[in-house]
């Protein structure tokens, strides 16, 4: 083989080695070149589904391609999340990723790890846990009355949840631990049933999110005692946080988006940027306000840290629950 031929072959081999990388870099630069499938791991028509459709409508304008909603329900979000995780990590299949998706992995063996098997994109909603009593229940004029009742009357402060093992249930366990109290969780088959029991006087209080009690607040049927946030909720400026009354309790129903592990960081950043821009639009904020969904944006790194913190918190609470 001549020296000229050897140089040509060597150059060809080097070119072939670099070619896949060149193609990949070009595809990332052009992303998205087609619609992106967004898996909602819950049934159509629910709060998560509606909220996702609202934010997707605004985010896709900034992304440049449609976000196509695909509902994949089952297993408390495990079926849909698992399908997203098993998808090709090219940015064309992403999924909703909520607190429920983290909690279920602490309650039983799941098909994914909530921190290690995903690439967090961003948080878009943080719906804080709150505890409400009926508006006409004069035993609880102040938040401290509520806490003192739970401390002085073990098991008498009955608080309704949407079901055993839900974030509402675990929030009561967290409250008991933080306040050195003994409130009693009472489980129902969904938020609607727990609210009906609450309004009917069958339970003393209810543990829900802001969005789930918004209508009862508007109708002056419920009063919120305290809210589990770092700072007061803008929509409820007169309601104190638990921290304000000396109880270290911060717990929310968080809703965001994730991609399969290995999705390039450049793609994650493009997606997060589209959702961030959507989160600043006045029309979007108004629609979410009407739905009772408090908007809070966190980027990929911050959302990843939040997922880790939730996993650690709920792992402890779930362990305590199974030991009882």
List keywords for this structure.
single chain, 324 residues, alpha/beta, D-Maltodextrin-Binding Protein, domain 2, globular
Question: What letter string, H or E per element, gives the SSE order?
Answer: HEHEHEHEHEHEHEHEEHHEH
Terminal-residue CA separation: 78 Å
The CATH homologous superfamily of the largest domain is named Bordetella uptake gene, domain 1
- Output the number of helix runs: 11
CATH architecture of the largest domain: 3-Layer(aba) Sandwich
Query: How many domains?
Result: 2
| Main sheet properties | 10 strands, mixed
- Which structural category fits the helices and strands? alpha/beta
Oligomer: single chain
Gyration radius over CA:
23 Å
Mean pLDDT: 90
CATH class of the largest domain: Alpha Beta
Looking at CATH, which topology of the largest domain would you report? D-Maltodextrin-Binding Protein, domain 2
Classify the beta-strand content into a percent band.
Answer: 15-25%
Which bin fits the share of residues in helices?
40-55%
Explain what this protein looks like in three dimensions:
This protein is an alpha/beta fold and 324 residues long. It folds into 2 domains: 33-126 and 253-323, Bordetella uptake gene, domain 1 (D-Maltodextrin-Binding Protein, domain 2, 3-Layer(aba) Sandwich), CATH 3.40.190; 127-245, 3-Layer(aba) Sandwich (D-Maltodextrin-Binding Protein, domain 2), CATH 3.40.190. Helix content is 46%, strand content 20%. The chain has 11 helices and 10 strands. The protein has helices at residues 3-29, 47-63, 78-85, 99-107, 143-152, 167-179, 191-199, 210-218, 265-278, 282-291, 300-323, and strands at 36-40, 67-71, 93-98, 118-134, 158-161, 184-187, 205-209, 222-227, 252-260, 295-298. Strands 1, 2, 3, 4, 5, 6, 7, 8, 9 and 10 form a 10-stranded mixed sheet that branches. Helix 6 links the parallel strand 5 (158-161) and strand 6 (184-187). Helix 2 (47-63) crosses helix 9, helix 2 (47-63) runs antiparallel to helix 10 (282-291) and helix 4 (99-107) packs parallel to helix 11 (300-323). The model has no long low-confidence stretch (mean pLDDT 90).
């Amino acid at each position: 083989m001549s020296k000229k031929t050897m140089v040509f072959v060597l150059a060809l081999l080097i070119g072939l080695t670099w070619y896949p990388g060149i193609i990949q870099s070009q595809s990332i630069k052009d992303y998205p070149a087609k619609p992106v499938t967004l898996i909602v791991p819950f049934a159509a028509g629910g709060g998560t589904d509606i909220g996702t459709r609202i934010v997707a409508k605004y985010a896709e304008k900034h992304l440049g391609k449609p976000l196509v909603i695909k509902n994949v329900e089952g297993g408390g979000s495990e079926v849909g999340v698992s399908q997203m995780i098993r998808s090709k990590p090219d940015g064309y299949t992403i999924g909703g990723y909520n607190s429920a998706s983290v909690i279920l992995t602490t309650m039983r063996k799941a098909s994914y790890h909530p921190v290690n098997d995903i690439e967090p994109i961003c948080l878009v909603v943080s719906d804080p846990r709150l505890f409400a009593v009926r508006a006409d229940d004069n035993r609880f004029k102040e938040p401290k009355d509520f806490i003192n009742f739970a401390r002085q009357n073990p098991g008498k402060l009955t608080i309704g949840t949407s079901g055993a093992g839900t974030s509402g249930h675990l929030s009561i366990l967290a409250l008991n631990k933080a306040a050195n109290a003994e409130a009693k969780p009472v489980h129902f088959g969904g938020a609607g049933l727990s609210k009906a029991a609450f309004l009917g006087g069958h339970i003393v209080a209810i543990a829900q999110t802001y969005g789930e009690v918004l209508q009862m607040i508007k109708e002056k049927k419920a009063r919120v005692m305290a809210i589990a946030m770092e700072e007061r909720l803008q929509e409820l400026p007169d309601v104190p946080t638990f921290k304000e009354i000396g109880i270290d309790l911060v717990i929310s129903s968080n809703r965001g988006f994730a991609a399969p592990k290995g999705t390039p960081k450049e793609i994650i950043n493009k997606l997060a940027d589209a959702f961030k821009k959507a989160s600043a639009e006045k029309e979007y904020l108004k629609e979410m306000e009407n739905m009772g969904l408090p908007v809070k944006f966190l980027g990929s790194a911050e959302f990843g840290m939040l997922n880790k913190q939730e996993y650690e918190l709920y792992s402890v609470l779930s362990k305590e629950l199974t030991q009882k």
